[in-house]
Amino acid sequence: MRLVLEVWRQAHPADPGRFETHEVDDATPEMSVVELLDRLNERLVEEGREPFAFESDCREGICGACGVTVDDRPHGPQKNTPSCHQRLSSWTDGQTIRIEPLRSRVYPVVRDLVVDRSALDRVVKAGGHVAIQAGTAPDADTTPVDHALAEMALDFAACIGCGACVAACPNGAAHLFVGSKLAHLAALPGGKKERGRRARAMVDEMEQDFGPCSSYGECADVCPAGIPLAAIAVVNRERMRVVLRGKND
Predict the structure, then answer these.
(1) What Cα–Cα distance (Å) separates residue 230 from each residue in 121, 178, 183, 199, 225?
(2) Cα–Cα separations (whole angstroms), residue 191 to 17, 42, 182
(3) Which pLDDT does position 18 carry in this prediction?
(4) Does pLDDT of 247 surpass 70?
(5) In the CATH hierarchy, which fold is given to the domain comprising 118-245?
(6) What pLDDT is attached to residue 235?
(7) Which one is the CATH code of 3-111: 3.10.20.30, 3.40.50.1820, 3.10.120.10, 3.20.20.80?
(8) What is the value of pTM for the model shown?
């Protein structure tokens, strides 16, 4: 299987960058986009040329590090699938694939396909955590949690923080990401004590860097964890709750 690759090359943040065209003539339909980049880099190294910088870690669709833009779509053509699971069976022999970084104002390019996603980290640092008393772990049945509630919280907690939702949004909004964090932490007993403070801190931090949500829905289509669009409503709900009940309630 022969594929023509147009891959973004950018030496450093100040470099304007450009696309480089390469061919891979031994690709297979079972390979992923990330494995395709591996194959290309192997050949470049053998030829004494500079390989493309890109991120990946688990390659099991869990860590979110592999996110790139493929043919103008974050992660690739398959819905709700990370780049490391986007199989080349979506393309045919001789086709051209364009691979570039996740495109968003808040994701400056570090090098080639690697972007700085620390804006997401700042949101989590602001309040995406729970403060608890350190000590002996309580028995599992000390605090009963309704099964349906626990399942809902786990569904929202599935967010892997890849940032594709922001890159897919025409406004560069992060409401799907922030809403998923607020939803799962507010649902469980351990997160209720800081619910108001958390909502205010995370939403305030989000609004420093990210755009407004207009409910386009592209974010949910590209989310590898399948976070539902309902998560964006949680942001406004939690913000309104702070106004009505006080930041510490």
Answers:
(1) 22, 12, 10, 16, 14
(2) 44, 47, 9
(3) 98
(4) no
(5) Fumarate Reductase Iron-sulfur Protein; Chain B, domain 2 (1.10.1060)
(6) 96
(7) 3.10.20.30
(8) 0.92
